What does this fold into?
Amino acid sequence: MINDVARAFFEAPVKRIVCVELPDEATDPTDTEKMVGLLQMSLYGTRDAATNFQEEVALFMSKLGFTRGQYDPCTYFHGRKGLMTMVHGDDFVSCGSREAAAWFKEKLSDRFEIKTKVVGTGREELGEARVLNRVIGVDEAGWRYEPDQRHADIIVRDLGLKEAKSVGTPGEEEKKGEEEENEELLEGKQATGYRALAARANYLAQDRVDIQYAVKELSRGMAKPTKGDYKKMKRLGRYLVGEPRVVTEYPWQEKCSAIQVYSDSDWAGCRKTAKSTSGGVVMRGRHFVRGWSSTQKCITLSSGEAELIALVKASTELIGILQLLADWGQEVDGEVLVDSSAALGTVRRKGCGKQRHVRVGDLWVQEKEESGEIKYKKVKGEENPADAGTKYIPEQRMRTLMKDVGQVSVKGRSKESLRIGRIEEDRKIRRKRGEQSGAGHRIGVDERGRV
It folds into this structure.
């Protein structure tokens, strides 16, 4: 169930003294003194409006019997009704039984002005809906989730690749002989445009394992983009010409008692810096939770050390997810699966052993292994989906890994998916809302002279 609160910030009392200049229609021309308005409720455009609303939400949810999450204060759980809720801005996204959802909708409508969408398989329920412009849907086979397709469309459009021939992979290794040419820096608008597209690709890559490594490499050039970086961007654009839409499928499955985190690394994969890359995928049964690709901060002296650092990263991600699930009333086990015997050997012993150069700060995973809080297991390299986040891999191998995590390339467009033309329209709507809310009026100061 998705609930959108209208004029949300106006529902939260202000926590400090804020004065605003009154509009002409609210003043009397005959007044000799200059009057200002003293805010009683939070106003769009003030710095603490969002915080005030979240505190008002926390008070409201507490009165209903919800418990606020300790790991993420934007999450709430009603233990008696089994209702999980996430609050993002003025959007309430809830998951639970139909009875619990109906009860919560009634309570929300008593307090706020809301618009509600219920996604489910019932007669009066929607098959698809948007949450933060991502599309969520359900049918007899299970749930599905896909990112905002407009990001891929904009990358292709801004690179001038609409009529270009697509390629099967989102990236490739730098060709020999082009190193000097690729080092030339981009300047002016071209550099700015590169950064904008890289940021957009980074947002899209959160939900797509097929482009995470390629986009990670693009992001490394954000500070000083080069011609080589721009070539990589165009390669990604050509891939998105043929693969603009990827859907993550969540088929119905039995309740899972564990979270599995797959970890992998590519030792010294960067030719320029000799740094390694960590890749990871979080799964719950056959359901994809999240994935990542990140460059390791330090240079490692062996593949075993690189795998250990990747394993530490996977362990931290697992602990965070376990805490989030605990806030939602779910106690599950955690497992980290790696294809490196050297990394597992380090985890299962005490201290550095012969690896004198390994930092002690990376060895806390030994305590997690000994206490049983996290279980570390071996997985075959060809069955490790985290491999997708460590390097450029062949097309067929990528297809196999995508299938393993439940992601499939789909042609066409979802009915709920927005199109590029809606971006300008959305901006106009937000600008209009800001003008109506008084965000354009000058803000006064409090008793301490603060804005």
In short: Residues 256-407 form a domain with the Nucleotidyltransferase; domain 5 fold (CATH 3.30.420.10). The two ends are 38 Å apart (CA to CA). The chain is about 35% helix and 20% strand. Confidence is low (pLDDT under 50) at residues 437-451.
